[in-house]
């Protein structure tokens, strides 16, 4: 039985995370957290998630609940996740991080903490997206430098980072398969007289609209044919179930930086 704490319990991901945790026989909801000034503090976390009474009330101080959980699941904002990570590092608590939008320096900080702590960091916890990462690697190796590669993603109007963490990881997967460095070949949007396309570039296009949960397409376009690998999420529960699975998997592991490919045995 793994006891889990959910950060950002009132958020779009926080609520399905609480629900997924409560619905998993081998997991227990140990704690739920929100900002100190949040109207959710004091509410029953299960009721807030629409999953019925859990007996766990939303708190606002991670240090105060350290004895109540084994693994923290954090899908919040970069600054909040890094603050929670510092506390987990002191306390030796594993952490599952779903937050996206970290800078290179912030990713290095997380990697540093993983020398002392088991951490699962993944831009997408769905099984389908992680399968797509494998398919993209194969597609890029087979198609090679003959094709133009473009990554198109769409998300809801509230998303604050772009391109999505998943789109960036897709870019890294195809770039690595082709022996390119994403930082050198990425093109983030186009405007004006751009000139002809340089074959080695990997283009990103971002759509933000309505309530789109998360769509990703990688387009491999040759002359005469094109291949599209697409994933569409229709429920956040797919991410939440994956994160709860990751929390069960990471508990008791050696320190290290893991991702969902490790959890699913896809590496
Ligand atoms: N890896 C994956 O599979 C997925 C990752 N994500 C990522 O998860 C993150 C959250 O997304 P989403 O749930 O849509 O966002 P929301 O804005 O709905 O939720 C964020 C939550 O974090 C809380 N929060 C923000 N700042 C703090 C803080 N300083 N201290 C404590 N709590 C804080 C918010 O509280 P308040 O509302 O009071 O500000 C809110 O409850 C994003 O980075 C997103 O990209 C999303 C889906 C899947
Ligand atoms: O913010 C979201 O909603 C999502 N963010 C993740 C990302 O940035 O890749 C994953 C998912 O697509 C939903």
UniProtKB/TrEMBL annotation:
It is found in: Cytoplasm. Gene3D superfamilies: Dihydrodipicolinate Reductase, domain 2, NAD(P)-binding Rossmann-like Domain. GO terms for cellular component: cytosol. Pfam families: DapB_C, DapB_N. NAD(+) binds at residues 8-13, 98-100, 122-125. Residues 2-125 form the Dihydrodipicolinate reductase N-terminal domain. InterPro entries: DapB_C (IPR022663), DapB_N (IPR000846), DapB_N_CS (IPR022664), DHDPR_bac (IPR023940), NAD(P)-bd_dom_sf (IPR036291). Pathway: Amino-acid biosynthesis; L-lysine biosynthesis via DAP pathway; (S)-tetrahydrodipicolinate from L-aspartate: step 4/4. Its EC number is 1.17.1.8. NADP(+) binds at residue 35. GO terms for biological process: diaminopimelate biosynthetic process; lysine biosynthetic process via diaminopimelate. GO terms for molecular function: 4-hydroxy-tetrahydrodipicolinate reductase; NAD binding; NADP binding; oxidoreductase activity, acting on CH or CH2 groups, NAD or NADP as acceptor. It catalyses: (S)-2,3,4,5-tetrahydrodipicolinate + NADP(+) + H2O = (2S,4S)-4-hydroxy-2,3,4,5-tetrahydrodipicolinate + NADPH + H(+); (S)-2,3,4,5-tetrahydrodipicolinate + NAD(+) + H2O = (2S,4S)-4-hydroxy-2,3,4,5-tetrahydrodipicolinate + NADH + H(+). (S)-2,3,4,5-tetrahydrodipicolinate binds at residues 156, 165-166. Residues 128-264 form the Dihydrodipicolinate reductase C-terminal domain. The keyword Lyase does not apply. CDD domains: DHDPR_N. Keywords: Amino-acid biosynthesis, Cytoplasm, Diaminopimelate biosynthesis, Lysine biosynthesis, NAD, NADP, Oxidoreductase. The keyword Cytoplasm applies. The active site is at residues 155, 159. It is an enzyme of class 1 (oxidoreductase). NCBIfam families: dapB. Homotetramer. Catalyzes the conversion of 4-hydroxy-tetrahydrodipicolinate (HTPA) to tetrahydrodipicolinate. Belongs to the DapB family. This is 4-hydroxy-tetrahydrodipicolinate reductase. It comes from Plasticicumulans lactativorans. The lineage of its organism: Bacteria, Pseudomonadati, Pseudomonadota, Gammaproteobacteria, Candidatus Competibacteraceae.
């Amino acid at each position: 039985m793994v006891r889990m704490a959910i950060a950002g319990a009132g958020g779009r991901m926080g609520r399905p995370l609480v629900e997924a945790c409560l619905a998993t026989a081998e997991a227990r909801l140990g704690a739920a957290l929100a900002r100190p000034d949040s109207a959710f503090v004091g509410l029953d976390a299960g009721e807030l998630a629409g999953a019925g009474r859990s007996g766990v009330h939303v708190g606002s101080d991670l240090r105060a609940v350290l004895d109540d959980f084994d693994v923290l699941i954090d899908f919040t904002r970069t600054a909040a996740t890094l603050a929670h990570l510092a506390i987990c590092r002191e306390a030796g608590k594993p952490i599952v991080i779903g937050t996206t939008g970290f800078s290179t320096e912030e990713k290095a900080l997380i990697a540093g903490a993983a020398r002392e702590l088991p951490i699962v960091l993944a831009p997408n916890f769905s099984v389908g997206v992680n399968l797509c990462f494998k398919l993209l690697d194969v597609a890029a190796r087979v198609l090679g430098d003959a094709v133009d590669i473009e990554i198109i993603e769409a998300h809801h109007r509230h998303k604050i980072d772009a391109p999505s963490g998943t789109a960036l990881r897709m870019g890294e997967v195809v770039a690595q398969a082709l022996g390119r460095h994403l930082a050198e070949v990425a093109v983030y949007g186009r405007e004006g007289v751009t000139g002809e396309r340089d074959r080695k570039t990997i283009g990103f296009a971002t759509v933000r609209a309505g309530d789109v949960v998360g769509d990703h397409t990688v387009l491999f376009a040759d002359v005469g044919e094109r291949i599209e690998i697409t994933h569409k999420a229709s429920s956040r529960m797919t991410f939440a179930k994956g994160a709860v699975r990751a929390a069960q998997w990471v508990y008791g592991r050696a320190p290290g930086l893991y991702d969902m490919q490790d959890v699913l045995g896809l590496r």
